[in-house]
Amino acid sequence: MPSFFLATGRLTLYASLTAILVPIQLVAMALNLPLKKKVPFFYHGMVCRILGIRRIVRGRMSTVRPTLFVSNHSSYMDIEVLGAVINGSFVAKSEVADWPVFGTLAKLQNTVFVERRPRQVGAQREVMAARIAVKENLILFPEGTSNDGNRTLPFKSALFSVAELEHEGQPITVQPVSIAYTHLDGIPLGRDLRPLVAWYGDMDLAPHLWTLVGLGRLTVRIIFHEPVTMADFSSRKAMAEYCYRVVAGGVAAALYGRRQPEIELQAAA
Predict the structure, then answer these.
(1) Which of 161, 162, 164, 224 is deepest in the core (most CB within 10 A)?
(2) Distance between CA atoms of 191 and 150, rounded to whole angstroms?
(3) What are the tens digits of pLDDT across the range 84-110?
(4) Residues in Cβ contact with 177 at an 8 Å cutoff, skipping those fewer than 6 apart
């Protein structure tokens, strides 16, 4: 059961942190200061501390700029966790921009909003290409929606359209990332309890958030896999399938202790 006092205390600290940093970020964005990229990174790290989220990172994060990070997605907490580790901008569906509170926060952290429909592939690529052109890292959830935290949904190849571009004559670096919530207060978070963290389907946000922030200390594992480029594949679909299998394998290994099998690249024709 969630603790009323813990939930109240954490939400109070969260609201206070947000109230302090929002005006700073507004000024930084209005004046186009370098600070506008640092504030979200700091903010996400502080939110993780407030909510008692312990992050365990495995693998080596790409230092190439720009890099397209592609990850599985099970919870709104993924934003805080990945945002505290990767200094970059998230790619979100256009509807998020209109969400109360969270839509505003997404805009303040330079989120890229795209129409996630197959016929909008060209428009998606143009929006993301503008960020790539200024060496901005992007964080993408290619499942196109959140899942129950116990599995990884197939990746939509249309969302990899930006990976077909080049930056300064070189193919875009793409790094698969697995994220898995594994423990609560040091106790393994089993299949039945993982929906306490995962937010998906028709779950109501407010009661889910209240329950989550009233829990104890969460442990989340973030696994950075070997980066790839489109030059390694015969098609965008092949890249999406490869990244899906790598990420899904990392999630399974983190949740269930399964050893991740070696996954071969599908060489370009």
Answers:
(1) 162
(2) 6
(3) 999 999 998 888 888 877 888 899 988
(4) 69, 70, 71, 82, 222, 223, 224, 225, 247
